[in-house]
Each structure stands twice: as structure tokens, then as C-alpha cells.
Amino acid sequence: MDAVVLPGLLVLGVVVLTPVADRTGVPHPVLLTVYGLLLGLVPGLPAPDLPPEAILPLVLPPLLFAATQSTSVRELRSAAGTVLSLAVRQAVVDQYESRLTYRGAVHDLVDGDVGGDSAGEQLRTLLARASEAEREAVLDARRSGRTSRAAADDVLFDVEARALRHGS
What we know:
Layout: H1 2-24, H2 28-41, H3 55-70, H4 73-110, H5 116-144, H6 149-165
Helix pairs in contact: 1-2, 4-5, 5-6
């Protein structure tokens, strides 16, 4: 019975508060947030047993759907540039941060700061094998004409520099 009470109250709130929001001019999300906060204060109401990773796929689609119902094409077009620039900027920042984190972790392993000397040795061996495979792939591409000599030489230089740095 407890598993039905909270979802029932939530659905009841949406059904009752939607016309109230339309009549009063108060945005739906504001009324629903206040309603949710008030429900949280009710003693004896069962706490939702919902994993945090389920919130985004369960909450975001209805909110986006509601926003599309009240957004005109003109508003969408006027905001498209801003949204795209923010999305691209965020993607670039996320990629840069993950690369910095990855590089730091690899350098810590190679230098033996994390995981002891055996972790560094294992990573050096792995890099040596990767370097050999890269060398072969680049030389094969250069021989077959799939890449220019200059481009292949640049890549080979980078592979050799990394191999020298890590002692492979």
C-alpha cells in the first residue's frame, strides 16, 4: 500500500495544480516544486526508494515535453545560437578536463607515484608494445601511400619521443 501512496499523491498534485497554474499564471514547475516540498514535510509519508541515477531519465523527459508545448518556433530559433555555443563550449571543457585527468593518472603510474614500482613497470611495458604497433602501422601507411612522408615522420617522431621518455 505504501508503494502506491506517494505516486498517487504526486499524480493528484499534477492533476490539481495544472489548472491552478493556468488560472493564476504561476509557472507549473514553481507550483509543483512547492507541492513536492510540502509533501516532504508530511509525517509518515513513505520516502521514495529511487536510485539517484534514475532521476534524470525519469524527470527530464516530462519537463522537456512541457517546455516544448509552450515554446514557439521563433523562441527556439532565437535561442539556438546560444544553446549551441554553450553545448559546444561545455563539450570542449569536459573533453579537456578528462584528458588532463587521464594524463595525470598515466604520468603517476609511469613515474611510480601510484601503485608502486610494479604499476609503473607494467605501464612502461604496455607503452612499449603500443609504440611498436604504432611504428608498424605508421610505416605501413607510409609505404602504401595512405599518408604523406612528412605526416608519417611527424607521427614517428612523437612515438619515438614517448618511447624514449618512458624507457621502452
